[in-house]
Design goal:
Order of helices and strands: HEEEEEEEEHHEEHEEHEEE
Distance between the termini: 42 Å
Number of helices: 5
Structural class: mainly beta
CATH architecture: Beta Barrel
CATH class: Mainly Beta
Number of domains: 1
CATH superfamily: Calycin beta-barrel core domain
CATH topology: Lipocalin
Shape: globular
Helix content: 10-25%
Largest sheet: 10 strands, antiparallel, barrel
Length: 298
């Protein structure tokens, strides 16, 4: 049998290859709840922080296939490095950096030459300077037309809300009020950012666009992945799970046959702090949601 090392000389990235390049977005939003001891509550309450941000997201291909040996089987990985840099839209302050890799997990080649599909076709690793690391895995699919972006909630689950004191979660509505404006001409309200369903902003960004096709990248730490935290976060605000969706789309320019590339994402990280109410065991899981719409610039 011919050695697989002699065959694989060029990395295969599948539909992840469309990520390679530099992307810019100015429509980013972050919603996160953090512990707040200022009120003297025991256990402490929370502070909801909602920020509008700008972003540069860069992907760079690793120009050789990465071989994983498993004795009588081999898998080649197509690796793409990424760097994410985020600034506050208003203050221009740096608020987030992240580095990691997207990985295309090619089929597994047996010693006999037989091939089998990997359980998950893609993976992403990430390192965050707060002291977190993630590994999420999932699937990638390409379909004609626009992305299908489903509603998500930024609130803790109904179980985690059950029994809360009156007004405990009012910060969510207060932030929605702050980010809702009224057109005095037609006396109609519109949301600058939908606090309760952040993905609504992504769908509004797509309104009126003509999409050729969309690659959907669906990643979750529950798919045999991991989430790590430094001791401080483990004690005070532990990240427990990560789910992220990316939509890589080809969009047609109006009144033209030309196209451009658009990348959107929605990510939800569960952060655990504050005991549940009514004597329920465990901590509340607070969703940290980030969304953005970006355009390829290089």
């Amino acid at each position: 049998m011919e050695n697989t090392k002699d065959i694989e000389t060029v990395p295969s990235f599948g539909d992840l290859e469309g990520l390679i390049g530099t992307w810019k977005g100015v429509k980013g939003w972050s919603l996160i709840s953090v512990p707040n001891h200022k009120g003297g509550e025991d256990p402490p309450g929370f502070e909801l922080i909602v920020q509008n941000y700008t972003e540069i997201l860069t992907f760079k291909a690793v120009d050789a296939p990465v071989e994983n040996e498993g004795g009588d089987q081999t898998q080649f990985v197509g690796a793409i490095e990424y760097e994410q840099v985020i600034h506050d839209f208003d203050t221009k302050e740096l608020i987030h950096v992240e580095n990691g890799m997207f990985m295309y997990l090619n089929e597994i080649v047996m010693e006999s030459g037989e091939t089998i599909d990997a359980p998950y076709s893609i993976a992403r690793s990430g390192t965050i300077p707060h002291g977190n690391s993630i590994l999420v895995l999932g699937l990638i699919n390409k379909d004609e037309g626009a992305p299908v972006i489903k509603e998500i909630t930024s609130m803790p689950s109904t179980v985690d809300q059950d029994g809360a004191p009156l007004g405990f979660f009012d910060q969510f509505q207060s932030e929605q009020d702050r980010l809702t404006v009224t057109d005095i001409v037609i006396n109609e309200e519109s949301k600058i950012f939908n606090v309760f369903d952040p993905n609504d902003n992504l769908n509004r960004d797509n309104k009126g666009l003509e999409f050729i096709d969309t690659v959907h990248i669906d990643l979750d730490s529950e798919n045999e992945g991991t989430v790590g935290n430094i001791p401080f976060l483990q004690k005070h605000a532990k990240a427990t799970n990560v789910h992220s969706d990316f939509w890589l789309s080809t969009v047609k320019l109006p009144m033209s046959n030309d196209t451009y590339q658009q990348l959107q994402y929605s990510q939800k990280v569960g952060i655990s702090f504050h005991e549940r109410f009514n004597g329920k065991q465990g901590l509340i899981s607070w969703p940290h949601v980030t969304i953005n719409t970006l355009t390829k610039i290089g």
